[in-house]
Amino acid sequence: MQHSVIKPAEPWALPLDYTLMPEYFRRLGYKTHMVGKWHLGYYDRKYVPLKRGFDTFIGFYNPSLDYYNQNFTGNNHTGHDFRCGDRNYWAEEKEYATYYYTRKTVEIIRCHDKSTPMFLFLSHQAPHVSGGRPLLQVPTHGVRNVSYIGENNRTLFA
Description:
Elements (H helix, E strand, L loop, with lengths): L20 H7 L3 E7 L18 E5 L10 E4 L2 E4 L2 E2 L2 E2 L8 H15 L6 E6 L16 H5 L7 H6 L1
Parallel strand pairs: 1-2, 1-7
Antiparallel strand pairs: 2-5, 3-4, 5-6
């Protein structure tokens, strides 16, 4: 894992002999939640977030997705990669990924039973490219604020 990323459908993942933070927190009685990008492997169910210490998961497994429809295209693979728990999930509205993950994170925090400790890991998709076209996807109102930069890619990254 030190020399490349896990590409779609590759048969490897973060080895199970590594105990992850959510596993430690869960043992201590915490409710553990993950929102966003997993990207630590998923070729076998034992490697997915719900098996690696998280009680809940909303997000995706692959390296990059469209920021609005959660579709993946790349490395000779294409499809929808968005999950709620261990099930494929289709968001009701086409909301920009950064806003969606932030909103879901706030909902988890607000609904959490305050008498139980919580560990929440938010892994935003940004600043990764979308995997589709255009590669850099930014809401229009975000670009307006930095349009003075001029060069298109630098403006989108800003």
